[in-house]
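Hi support team,

I'm opening this ticket because the web form for multi-chain structure prediction keeps timing out on my end. I have pasted the exact lines I submitted so you can reproduce it. The total is 225 residues across two entries, so I didn't expect it to be a heavy job. Is there a limit I'm missing, or should I split the entries? Thanks in advance, R.K.
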Amino acid sequence: EDKVVQSPLSLVVHEGDTVTLNCSYEVTNFRSLLWYKQEKKAPTFLFMLTSSGIEKKSGRLSSILDKKELFSILNITATQTGDSAVYLCGGGSEKLVFGKGTKLTVNP
Amino acid sequence: GAVVSQHPSWVICKSGTSVKIECRSLDFQATTMFWYRQFPKQSLMLMATSNEGSKATYEQGVEKDKFLINHASLTLSTLTVTSAHPEDSSFYICSAPLFSTDNSPLHFGNGTRLTVT
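Hello R.K., no limit was hit. The queue was backed up. Here is the completed structure from your submission:
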């Protein structure tokens, strides 16, 4: 059975801290791993990773995929209160299997 | 701006009635759309894959006669929850790949909060 496991399930930090969110996967027909940020409603797309070892970066966020060890991490540096959200990772091909998410709370 | 539009945002209905949720791709065509359900503090659970011009593909454990999916055009998929019961109360969300290539990221609608009383 396909599964995606995220850790930690929740995380509380102070502004300015750096956080690392983890995502491990066991998915048949794996082609890519995607990270999303979900605030109140729709998840918004952050990154899509298809190749091992290539870091993708967008501002203070970065992510990398390890296809040998079947995991990915999402890093957020210099966190801000606006980063507070649930971060979801999903793996698969056309159909994605999602983890339960990591709820990040950034306190001022 | 949003690339996938979902309507309505929230709906309250009485037990036994049916509710239709629309998912539209804006400015792009989507031969495939995906319907998810999300319970509080849970992940997105794929319910079914909506295929334009053909039958939807349902995930194991999802009743196809209860959750009717119609993908009548390249920009519209609908999910109808028939004879809704309180346990169907959930957050329903659709997504569509922006491109037709295999590795296109999915874009999500804003979701529909369904409450069945």
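A quick check on our side: Residues 20 and 57 of chain A are 14 Å apart (CA to CA). Let us know if the file doesn't open in your viewer.
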